[in-house]
Amino acid sequence: MRINRKVVLIVIIVVIGIAAGVLFSMYSRQVADQKDLDAKLDRARVLTVSLTGQKKDAEDKLASAESLLEQSRAKFPTSVESIEYGEYLFDIAEDCGVTLESLKFPTPVEKKVGSVTYSVVSLSLPVSGPLDNIFDFISTIRTDPRFASTELKTVNLDVGGTRAIITLDIYGYKG
Questions:
Q1: Of 30, 55, 74, which residue sits at a domain end?
Q2: How far is CA 114 from CA 37, 52, 110, 117, 159, in A?
Q3: Which backbone phi and psi does 43 adopt, to 5 degrees?
């Protein structure tokens, strides 16, 4: 049995048509996949630029926070040396024209604020002198950089206004 040339030609055309259809289908899928990958790549590039900017901002904030932490630590002495603070207080009293009647440095106690532990010395400073000079003494302690880590607690003036008892806490950073 002999196959007619027309039938062979039709079979060849059908096979070529099916092959072309399969190839076109595969090509179409690859083009769609390529477009999808290009879109994802574009989004990744935009996200990379955004994240790089956010990383830079975060690094700047971290550096700023670390700098602030170091500045804050510098304000707090690592220990409260009674001799030094005693000398400072007597010098300020002399400069302000008041008499510091006595000075006793108790043993420092630890005080925890959040995650930071401080060494705290509570002082009671009996001073005498003119009222203006007492106020000048208090103001000087509050503004003197050597007392930046000091918290003024109370001021008790006597009735005559020539004597006061000033209580304050001096904080030292323990780390």
A1: 74
A2: 50, 33, 13, 8, 40
A3: -65, -40
2 residue type, one letter: R
Residue 88 and residue 56 in one domain: no
Residue 107 token pair: 């043993």
Range of the domain at 126: 82-173
> Phi, psi at residue 137, to the nearest 5°?
-60, -45
Say if residues 170 and 109 touch (Cβ distance below 8 Å): no
User: Which residue, 98, 103, 99, is CA-closest to 86?
Assistant: 103
Residues 43 and 95 in one domain: no
Q: For residue range 14-62, list pLDDT tens digits in order.
A: 999 999 999 999 999 999 999 999 999 999 998 888 888 888 988 989 8
Angle, helix 131-143 to helix 82-96, in steps of 10 degrees: 140
DSSP 25-36: HHHHHHHHHHHH
CATH of the domain at 101: 3.30.70.60
pTM confidence score: 0.54
